[in-house]
Each structure stands twice: as structure tokens, then as C-alpha cells.
Design a protein that fits this description.
CATH class: Alpha Beta
Structural class: alpha/beta
Order of helices and strands: EEEHEHEHHHEHEEEE
Oligomer: single chain
CATH topology: Rossmann fold
Number of strands: 10
Number of helices: 6
């Protein structure tokens, strides 16, 4: 099956968003349309304040657009009530954030198992899946440790394992390497790429980290609330080619 016959995981059409603080209304996104495909690591890049994280929040259903529509896995995500969006996210998506979002009191395996138990996975099965996910990200020997006993790179890998254990069809990552050194940053983005390639998930990563560009299947460039470029690195030549 060619890529042209694969349905997009996310289809967004004419997305606009603004925020109002006091008397000041600021337009963040201007009629953005984009499709995100399964089996690919897609990076969204651009300067701070260009709308990257707002776009990710809308595409993931964390916030609704002012105008436009988002269809995710053929469901009208942007038209759902908040409770339905929450249930949809829990069942189908994973998140990796800049700040790790770990519970201080829980061990690595408990962090991962907790999310599965929220999905009504039985405790024994949840712990088994948690251990497998931690092994997959190279943290098998450290799964009994709590966040204060882990390095920044290890904490981010716990966060990836937590997302991975859900077996999500879509994985969102917001600046996942910004707090990490080069070695750990490469390890984290390589894991995200493997989730796309080996599990067929659509992985959408917002970043301003230029170290990640060489790992991407697709790079979407944003500026001033608009998409200004959409390209696929050519692994053979190192040349960028435009997406259409």
C-alpha cells in the first residue's frame, strides 16, 4: 500500500485560534490546514511564539479551535464535548511533555502502570505492560526508582514508556528534548521515531531543537501562526524535498 492510500491520522482544516488577556486579543493561528500521517515522525518547528504548541494543543484535543475542524482517526474531535474528547484522548493518544509530568511518590513502573489502570487495565496486566515498556526504553534495571533518583534523560524515557505502554495510535510530544543534553536528546527522539516506524503511530513533535531535524520523516515550518513550509528530508541525498 502506498502512502497516498493511507488515511491520515489527523486532518485539520482552516484552524484559527486567538487568546484574550484583559482587553487585548491576540491571534495565534490563522487558518492552518494540515494532515498528519501514521507511521511517521513529524516535527513542527519555528520560532518561539509562532503557534507551534497551540497547534499541538488543538490537534490533540486539549483545546478547541475558534474556527475550523479537526478530524482524528475519522472522528470529529473538534466538535466533541470536552468529556468525550478526554475519553478519546485517553483511549487513543499518548503525550510526552517538556517537564516530564511524573508523580514524585511513584516508582517508574508505578508511573507507567497508573495510566493503564486509568484505562481500566487490570493491575497485574498493567504492571506487566509497564515493565515491558520500560525495558523497551532501556530502563529495565531502574524501574523501581522514583523521579528524584533518575536523571533528566531517564525521567523523559519514563514519560515515553508511559505513553508507549498505552499502545497509542497517535503520540504528541511538546519540546521533549529541551531540558536534555545532546546524548539524551538523541536517545529520546530516536525512541519517538521508533514508535512511529515500528508501531505505525503518528508521532507529532513540536520542537525548536535543531538537533532533531535529522531524525524526522517530515518537517513542518511555522511562522506567525501559519505554515510556511512542509518538507521531507531525503535520507539518501540529505536534500530537503517539498511535501505535496
Amino acid at each position: 500500500m502506498t502512502a497516498h492510500h493511507v488515511a491520515a491520522a489527523i486532518d485539520a482544516h482552516a484552524i484559527s485560534k486567538s487568546y484574550t488577556v484583559g482587553q487585548v486579543r491576540t491571534q495565534i493561528l490563522f487558518g492552518v490546514s494540515v494532515s498528519i500521517m501514521p507511521g511517521e515522525l513529524t516535527l513542527v518547528v519555528g520560532p518561539s511564539g509562532c503557534g507551534k504548541s497551540t497547534l499541538l494543543a488543538i490537534l490533540s484535543g486539549l483545546t478547541p479551535p475558534d474556527q475550523g475542524e479537526v478530524h482524528t482517526l475519522n472522528q470529529p474531535l473538534s466538535q466533541m464535548k470536552a468529556s468525550a474528547r478526554d475519553a478519546f484522548r485517553l483511549a487513543n493518544t499518548g503525550f510526552v511533555f517538556q517537564g516530564f509530568n511524573l508523580f514524585n511518590a511513584l516508582t517508574a513502573e508505578e508511573q507507567v502502570a497508573y495510566v493503564l489502570q486509568c484505562m481500566k487495565v487490570k493491575p497485574a496486566a498493567a504492571m506487566e505492560r509497564a515493565r515491558a515498556a520500560l525495558e523497551a526504553v532501556g530502563l529495565g534495571p531502574r524501574m523501581k526508582l522514583r523521579p528524584f533518583e533518575l536523571s533528566g534523560g531517564e525521567k523523559q524515557r519514563v514519560a515515553i514508556a508511559r505513553a508507549l505502554a498505552k499502545q497509542p495510535r497517535i503520540l504528541f510530544a511538546d519540546e521533549p528534548t529541551s531540558a536534555l543534553d545532546s546524548h539524551n536528546g538523541h536517545a529520546v527522539i530516536a525512541l519517538l521515531r521508533d514508535i512511529a516506524h515500528n508501531q505505525g503511530a503518528a508521532v507529532l513533535c513540536v520542537t525548536h531543537d535543531p538537533r532533531l531535524l535529522s531524525f524526522a520523516d517530515r518537517i513542518i515550518h511555522m511562522e506567525d501562526g501559519r505554515i510556511i513550509g512542509d518538507e521531507r528530508p531525503d535520507p539518501q541525498s540529505g536534500v530537503q524535498r517539498e511535501s505535496h
